[in-house]
Write a structure and sequence with these properties.
Elements: H1 46-53, E1 70-73, H2 74-80, E2 85-87, H3 89-94, E3 108-111, E4 121-123, E5 127-128, H4 130-138, E6 142-143
Parallel strand pairs: 1-3, 2-4, 3-5, 4-6
Amino acid sequence: MQIHDLKRVHKNKGDRIVGRGGKHAKTSGRGTKGQSSRAGNKKRPELRDIIKKLPKLRGYRAHSFEVKPVHISLDAIAKAFSAGGAITPAILLEKKAIKKVKGFTPKVKILSGKEKFGIKIQVSNCSVSSSAKEMIEKAGGEVVAK
């Protein structure tokens, strides 16, 4: 056997360059550069950012889904019905005293106005405040219950 025929039993290992973390060297198995390669790397979930940008509903507790009636004062009725007559939500809509709500004829509530009311009207299918009811009945009109 000659000296040039000798072979190592174990392969020659290269020297480790820095890089802490077990058997890994240099980048310690984290790839190269960037936020993800650093210690303490935490990325915010994308969905959280989207949720944070959404507008919030303000107010205390939940908002009701109840469809509330459209308010109309006796002053507005006096302008639209100077001669008097019957008053229903459909007739108010016809005279353009109220507007449709989401494509439907809304429920109507009649409230008292600031001025004196002296027109004889007959109200039906509308809710009426107590002060408005008094004013209508004083003028000689009547309120028919639903």
